[in-house]
């Protein structure tokens, strides 16, 4: 019987996430969960946090596929001119070369789990921004404490 190697997974919680705003005028923040510096693989996985009315700039990726899973809130996804409303529980897959943006159309913050494969310098772009912290509202959402709060 061949010897097996024990693989120890990388485990992180919201208090471990590194948060950045890419440009001073951006209306969204990105909290890196995993990227090539801490996962030894070519992917970027982050939580993207959009203020009400906030959006990403239109962007496209040469090779990378990007997936958005809406954790909380509502918004609009626009890809190559096609618009679709998105809300908590929805998933969006953007193929390589699709020009896209995500916009928060709600009155509260929009949270998405955003995954890009391969990384295509996404993590480096995020890390080139201004370091920030998650606030109490972010921590409540990411720790699922908000699900326990009365409406």
From TrEMBL:
* Entry-linked InterPro entries: Cupin_2, Flavonoid_dioxygenase-like, RmlC-like_jellyroll, RmlC_Cupin_sf
Question: Which residue ranges traverse the bilayer?
Answer: none
The record's listing under CDD domains reads: cupin_MAE_RS03005
Q: Where is the Cupin type-2 domain?
A: 48-115
Which Pfam family is an annotated match for this chain, by its short name? Cupin_2
Name this polypeptide is given: Cupin domain-containing protein
């Amino acid at each position: 019987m061949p010897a097996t190697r024990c693989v120890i997974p990388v485990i992180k919680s919201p208090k471990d996430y590194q948060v950045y705003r890419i440009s001073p005028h951006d209306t969204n923040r990105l909290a890196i969960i995993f990227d090539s510096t801490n996962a030894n693989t070519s992917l970027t996985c982050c939580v993207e946090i959009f203020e009400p009315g906030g959006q990403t700039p239109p962007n496209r990726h040469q090779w990378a596929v990007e997936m958005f899973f809406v954790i909380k809130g509502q918004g609009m996804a626009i890809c190559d001119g096609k618009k679709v409303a998105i809300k908590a529980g929805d998933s969006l897959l953007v193929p390589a070369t699709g020009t896209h943006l995500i916009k928060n159309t709600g009155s509260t913050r929009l949270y998405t789990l955003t995954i890009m494969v391969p990384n295509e310098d996404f993590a480096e772009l995020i890390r080139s921004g201004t370091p920030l912290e998650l606030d109490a509202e972010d921590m409540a959402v990411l720790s699922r404490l908000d699900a326990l709060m009365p409406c």
